[in-house]
Amino acid sequence: MRRSVVSAAITAAGALALVGPAVAEWSALQQLREGLSRCPGTQDDACGGLARADVDVGGLRMWHAWREHAGLRLEAERVTIIGGADGIAVDAHGVQLSRATNAAPVTSPKSDTPASEADAPQAPRRRSLQTHGIPVHLQVHGDIEWSRGGITVTASQPWVRLDGHGGAEAHFTPTVRGRGLQAHGETEWDARALDGDPRHWQARGRVALASGPSVPAALTLSPEHVDLQLDDGDGGQLIVHAPLPRGARSAPPSVEVIASRFSLSALGGLGARTLARWGSDLQQATLDGTITFEGAIDAGTVGLEHVVLDGLVVDHPKLARDAVHFDALNIDGHASWNGPHLDGELVLGHRGAAASMTANFGPRALDLEALLAPLPCADLVGAFPDAMAEMVAGTRLTGQIEGRAQLHVDREALAQARALDRRPSDAPAPGSLDVEFPFLERCTVIADDPRLDLPALSGPYRHNFVDDRGQARTRVMAPGAPGYVSLTTVPRLSRAFITLEDRRFWSHDGFDREQIVNAFWHNLVKGRVSRGASTISQQATRNLWLGVDRSWARKLQEALLTARLESSTNKSRIMELYLNVIELGPGTHGVDEAAQLYFGKPARALTPLQAVHIAALAPAPRRFAAEFADGRVDAEWLDMLRAAVRRMYRAGFISRAQMLAGQREDLGLLDRR
Description:
The chain is of the alpha+beta class. The strands form five sheets. It has a 24-stranded mixed sheet that branches. A three-stranded antiparallel sheet has the order 17-20-21. Strand 13 (214-221) and strand 14 (225-231) form a beta hairpin.
């Protein structure tokens, strides 16, 4: 009789074998029974780690069997082994897989060993699934779970078959969950040991990621690495390659993701929660390139090399009024972090334009630098998707443009400013902001978009717009037209708007750079956008051609169109157009309609205090109209209006008598309830 031993063992990561060295002869059960009788009721390693066992003609039953191997603790509540003419059948119940508690530490090489030899990889010891011709079938009842790093892998109802000659196969249904990851096998997976080596397995099946579609997948396991390959069903592939750590000297954990025209719809909702908040649609998007991760949460790196995201669609009101369809987005970059420190660079390219951003975050400061690579001015406009350039898409430009922006934030100064909950206008900014974008100096417009009729603004201009009720309306911008006021008839109103909205109106080129910087720091300290920096020219542009949406696309178009308005139209005409198109309440456009609505008089008859009230409605006309519907204002609002009247006097816009009257008189708002 050949000597053999039956032992309970569980192999991890998909093999799930609960039988170690094979049984050559059935009489080995008796041999095992005799060995167990020497140390009953113990969990000593010499006894195979068995708390209790029973052998009868039906086979061997073991309770609370466990074994530690290769850093894993393998447990089973009950194991039944039954032999017969067709081989050995093993049933395991209550199997658990966890990290070993007494795994042998990795020892350093002896001092006399050359460093090159100590660090050289050792040839792995080959193990065999040879069972001396006896087939073995293992069936695990229930699930096996393995958790690490917040991710849990579950294999449901797995079974393993050894053919007795080194061949092995396994079947299981996998589920992976944790850290936003959710994947489950749509069908039972087939796994086979490669060349009879229990350290190398390959499994194939179908998997659905985060409620996505079922796609073909292949998983390859070895002591050195794990590879997962997904096929999107349309010729695209995604390969995830993860080397496995080997001892204390191993490199930090790393993952490499290689995509080849892979359809992102195959990933389901994986990692898309942030994108979903922006209305992103990945159903038609594909991914190319390589993404690498190395390290852990507290320290590591990530890299993007030749990544191309093609066909992304974003439908969000902050980006544009309509859904934005991107062409191929080229993405390269890298980032590294170590505790509170983060350094990185990101390069984005779209339709021939490329911009880069470098960032350095630390406990004391935040530094950002954005660079627009030199390119023709025409390509700058063409780089924006159609939904972001609707009113400027037909603009033809000449010249060359580049840009740069640098931001430095002192974290301690920012914290102090936030603790005060305000930043006085004369207080120093908690950092510095420097922007260079010489569009007006470098780019020349040779033809406007056909929808932009600038010459018409100098005459009786027909302004077509949609009001807040969705009704199409037309207003003629010319003296004598209904509701129209000439600038010369409402000097107080124009000066009230300049006082509250744009005190440098007569001198700037359409953009007040100082106010842009001040608004940026104010909003950063507040932690939200509560102050704007739009000039009267920008507001006139928005009301004439772009509507009321506050998207980034509108801001980009507004900048170009404001430059065109300033270069083609004199300041007085811009102010006059502004006063006649501005929205100042629900369905109320122009200062004359507003004067009639709120005070029951024409705009030319408003007092300085009333003119300031009309101008103060501009930032939020609908909200203020509802707030003051009963004709009453609080003391804080009235104090703000009277302070504005005093500023008008100091600027020389009104007389001293008018200023004093404004400090005493009643506002005279109508009750519109």
